[in-house]
Amino acid sequence: MTIRINDPDKQAFEQEHEDLVRRLAPECMVLLRNDGTLPLTNLQSVALYGNGARQTIKGGTGSGDVNVRHFVTVEEGLEKAGVTVTTKDWLDAYDQVISAAKKDFYQKLRQEAKAAGQNPILATMGKMVVEPNYQIPLHKGTDADTAVYVLARNSGEGSDRRPVPGDIKLTETELRDIVELNKTYQHFALVLNVGGLIDLTGLEEIKTVLLLGQLGSATGDACADVLTGKAYPSGKLTMTWAPIEDYPSTEGFGDPNNTNYREGIFVGYRYFDSTNTTPIYPFGFGLGYTTFKVSPGTVEVDGETITVNATVTNTGSAAGKDVVEVYYSAPQPDRSLPKPYQALAGFVKTQELQGGQSQVVSLTFNLSSLASYDQKSSAYLLEAGDYALRVGDSSRSTHIAGIVRLSDDVVTQQLHAVGGESGFTDFVPSGPAYSYPEEAHEIATATVVEIDAGSIPTTAVSYSDQPAEITRTEPFSWKDVASGQRSLDEFVGTLSDEDLTYLCVGAYKDSDDLMEVIGDASTTLAGAAGETTHQIEGQDLPVLTMADGPAGLRLSQRYTLDGGKPQPLETSMGADMLSMYSDEELAAMKSRATDSARARTVYYQYCTAIPIGTELAQSWDDDLVQQCGDLVGDEMELFGANLWLAPAMNIQRSPLCGRDFEYYSEDPLLAGRIAAAITRGVSRHQGCATTIKHFAANNQETNRYFQNNNISERALREIYLKGFEICVKTSHPRTVMTSYNLINGEHACNRYDLVTEILRDEWGFDGLVMTDWLVTGGMGPSGDQWPAASAAGCVKAGNDLTMPGIPSDKKDIMDALSNPEHQYSLTRATLQQSARRVLAMILELTGAENQD
Ligand code: BGC
């Protein structure tokens, strides 16, 4: 039941949600270095510097931005904690430097876009001002003995990050100031307010570095809690940190037309370990305010289920939590199916452990979940031999717990080939892999447990047939379906081709102005990104409202009602996107809003920003993430959103991807489990569901609507689809959003093999699939090789809904119905099938509401 809040003051739920985020956030922070400087207990005053100190970033830009009432900056958080900030002059001076730089930057972008005849928002989406160099005296008037430097970076959809000073690398000014402060102050800590990799080359002498990240509404409070020791960090990296040149994905990244995923399955630590390339910080790494020892215990098997036991002991004196990570190294009898040195098999976060306290943990998984995909036979295969199980608390600090020996090869799943051809052979590591001094001895003396190949079943898949047409029926009211008197099939039989088409194109507007439908295309929920159709005449068909994420709900903060319909008083676009408008344009928008507000009651929708995706995953804690999903679900129920366009769970293939901050990890198991946890949290709420996105391989923002990824079927299945598979199979998400990009020459949303054969037939997904926004709209810049996606192609592929729904989508589908020569010619039965899925989801998510 939607609540309309007409009280501008902070509501109780806002405070509760903010408190929750503050309590959970320290578990997402990763302590990278500490020489004992942290925690800064009894901190009275601090010399605070850096671009993130006052201009703190709570989360990136674009659709993933959340319009909060207020969020706490680092400066504010410290002051609220009673700490005096002694460097106001420096912070004031920096404000001036950056606001001048931003003004110039956006003005130039606006002019360029105008000269090129492009829409300024579209042409410049996600472009960030590169941090300028400047001279601001560091020590004027400060008598603190402690300095904290907060280094921030921002990014967002539409643009990628750049391997240059001021983005991935530090500027000369930053390097100079950080080194100087470290020398001058008795205590010094570097705090990273970033959403992804930052190259710390040149800062080797800095001994205390906290990856604060971007934690949403409570960023500054949580930072103060951890700096002063009121709370402790317990996150672990979910992406390997290494010099940008060392990632195999860096070569060729950003090509507007084609990206070749030549590294195949060797993504992230799978690459660094298998090629013995030393990272700066390995996957799974993170310190605490105490130390831990993880001692491998026994390995047990029951059928094909493996249990690995371990004891974790807090070997220091402060309280803390650790993460126990289990990795496996699979046998490679003749190396015809190359495997990484190791891959994650399971993980668990400990409870809080006091100094000296221990906890025994058990991690369970099936041997078949460790199978590799053999393209030659289109099957998941477990090769006979020894599976070494490694236990530790980072990918580079494990010990052998035991060996599982498989008597014979087993085909765990017989599938058929999908995904098309990449056009090249994947990379295979040739040199020695990473090792550690005791490894050979540990393997030689490990306990071996045997699994009989006969105990592991082979599963087969039955792929869909073409659907049969639903017979035409005399019209009747949707209410009869909602009340259970008539069936959905019968209702579908009443619909004309045109109505079926409307159901498959979102909230269709007779407008060619794409800006009217970007990110703000709902007339039911102010500021929501989109909704399903209103065009079915004579039927009071409910609509499904869709609001963005993944760092909370993105809605307009204020709206009024006009004839019962919400009218946003401001756009739900975030502040950075609004920078693209001139002062005059902004003033005009504001005065329109004020006139309308004067006339009517104003309602408020202040949402909470939760930590960005990467931070949530860095907690390695399914329960914590589920709680955040629950928080979002609460706000969805309150404001009336059915679908949350989140979680975003693409693999972090390259640190250069501008949306990595929204994503979880370079590892599919971790990404899948975190997405499943947040899905469970949201699904606890009546009428609310997640939309897992962007399916699949949305790993680059440059030219994102027209960018083709060439990927082998094996890498696609084992890396880029695996997280989605885990999420679908374990948490029953109700909707999926396909990605903009092409895969091996065809748009993801137009690929029948991806959307129907893999998602539905192989994994059993029984919900609704929608496109990403305007994938069919021919939005620029367009590269010069690939066409826009087709709405008819979407229906044919089983991607039911083209969002947000524009006139050319309707035309395309209607043409495909009547023209057998259309590239994606359609039968009425196929169209009925997609329309039926849209209706089924409307019924599922609004059913209870209708019966009230
Ligand atoms: C983004 C999606 C988002 C959609 C709706 C697109 O630009 O890629 O992640 O959900 O807009 O705002």
From TrEMBL:
SUPFAM superfamilies assigned: (Trans)glycosidases (SSF51445), Beta-D-glucan exohydrolase, C-terminal domain (SSF52279)
Fibronectin type III-like domain residues: 322-395
GO MF terms, alphabetically ordered: hydrolase activity, hydrolyzing O-glycosyl compounds
UniProtKB keywords: Hydrolase
Coiled-coil features, chain-numbered ranges: none
Classification via PANTHER family: BETA-GLUCOSIDASE
Family: Belongs to the glycosyl hydrolase 3 family.
Name this polypeptide is given: Fibronectin type III-like domain-containing protein
